Amino acid sequence: MRLILLGPPGAGKGTQADVLAAHYGVPHVSTGDLFRYNLRQGTPVGLEAKGYLDRGVLVADDVTGRMVAERIDREDAAPGFILDGYPRNLAQGEDLEEMLRVRRLHLDRAVAVDVPEDVVLSRITGRRLCPSCGATYHILYSPPAQEGRCDRCGAELLQRPDDRAETVTVRLGVYRDETAPLLAFYRERNLLETVSGLGSVDEVTARIREVLHD
Ligand code: AP5
Predict the structure, then answer these.
(1) Is 36 exposed, middle or buried (0-12, 13-18, 19+ CB in 10 A)?
(2) Are 138 and 126 in contact (CB under 8 A)?
(3) Mutation test of ligand 1: which of 71, 140, 141 has the most ligand atoms closer than 8 Å to its C-beta?
(4) What is the residue with the minimal CA distance to atom 2 of ligand 1?
(5) Average of pLDDT values for 96-113?
(6) Which has the closest alpha carbon to 114: 175, 56, 28?
(7) pLDDT (tens digit per residue) in 168-202
(8) Average pLDDT over the chain, rounded to whole?
(9) pTM of the prediction?
(10) pLDDT per residue over 43-57, tens digit each?
């Protein structure tokens, strides 16, 4: 299973990618998570990405592409992957095609998770993240058992720095201008499926599995 999840910030791509990765037994490859991991580790990629993440704009395509190529070459991605957050513009869509072509691999589907902006905003402002294990919560829709603490590892939950209102506005603009054209790109290749991202996490998962004929 080689799948791309597309959709605006806060659409629930990461949440769905986690569920689908466990279901299909393939890794969830999130470029946002990879950048945040590199940032915490203080790697050269993390240091380069920091300014872009803080502003809510896209990190350079070559840096991002190298990071993705390195990740999908790992052994655990041999049976496939769920890509979340990549590609993010037309150039990255073409880079990914080339990346897969030279590896003699193909993409099964690109699934766009469609959520209106007002819902996206409420999902993003309520999101809390565990800085230690990466688990994601929402203060209303999927709260932790103990307020402010991660269920999995007990660490204190934080708000992502780029979830501040002014940065979210920039990220939504980047999605409209740079990422949304990928919908036509994958439609032309007969790979695009669109599902509504409204409703519960389980309802959205069921819709995705339905379009994947699973
Ligand atoms: P990234 O981390 O990819 O952020 P994003 O695309 O903006 O997506 P989000 O993580 O905000 O949202 P999501 O759709 O995964 O939603 P989630 O499941 O968390 O990117 C961050 C930055 O990294 C970028 O701005 C850029 O700088 C850089 N970057 C990343 N990729 C790049 C690339 N390819 N090229 C260049 N730069 C790149 O859900 C959101 C909330 O809603 C959560 O609290 C969740 O619990 C809740 N929720 C989820 N589903 C539901 C539901 N059905 N009902 C109710 N609540 C729900």
Answers:
(1) buried
(2) yes
(3) 141
(4) 32
(5) 98
(6) 175
(7) 999 999 999 999 999 999 999 999 999 999 999 99
(8) 96
(9) 0.95
(10) 999 999 999 999 999
Ligand 1 centroid distance, CA of 27 (Å) = 17
Helix (H, G, I), strand (E, B) or coil at 29: strand
Nearest-atom number in ligand 1 for the CA of 18 is 18
Cβ–Cβ < 8 Å for 195, 112? yes
Q: Compute CA 29 distance to the chain's CA centroid, rounded to the nearest angstrom.
A: 8
**Ligand 1: centre distance to CA 115 (Å):** 12
- Among 132, 160, 130, which residue's Cα sits nearest to residue 145? 130
Distance 144 CA to ligand 1 centre (A): 19
Cβ–Cβ < 8 Å for 33, 134: yes
User: 25: buried, middle or exposed (CB in 10 Å: 19+, 13-18, 0-12)?
Assistant: exposed
Residue 11 has pLDDT above 90, yes or no: yes
CA distances from 66 to 7, 42, 63, 149, 171 (A): 22, 17, 5, 34, 22
What is the CATH architecture of 2-116+179-211? 3-Layer(aba) Sandwich (3.40)
